[in-house]
Amino acid sequence: QVQLVESGGGLVQAGGSLRVSCAASGLTFAISKMSWFRQAPGKEREFVATIVWGSGSTNYADSVKGRFTISRDNAKKTVYLQMNSMKPEDTAVYSCNSLAGGINYWGQGTQVTVSS
What we know:
Layout: E1 3-7, E2 10-13, E3 18-25, E4 31-39, E5 46-52, E6 58-60, E7 68-73, E8 78-83, E9 92-100, E10 103-106, E11 110-115
Parallel strand pairs: 2-11
Antiparallel strand pairs: 1-3, 3-8, 4-5, 4-9, 5-6, 7-8, 9-10, 9-11
């Protein structure tokens, strides 16, 4: 059974930092890429960042570019999102996504709240 388990969410003040993690297990096929998405209350889910598993190439949403960094640990099949200079508008449920064998898998999400 494929599982993506996020951790590290919580409450942080504006300007602060937080790191969330997502560990994948049970995957039959090799990971092609892993991504972070977020969904704020009353809004649609939006793309945050992605990392190509083999090359380490990354891509970011304009709203987080320069503040957030996505990285991976191949051996642990874990992806990280380091969030710096956080803003209240970063408040959302952050979910990770894994593309493996042409199939998208999703985690349950972790709440991140940024207070002003």
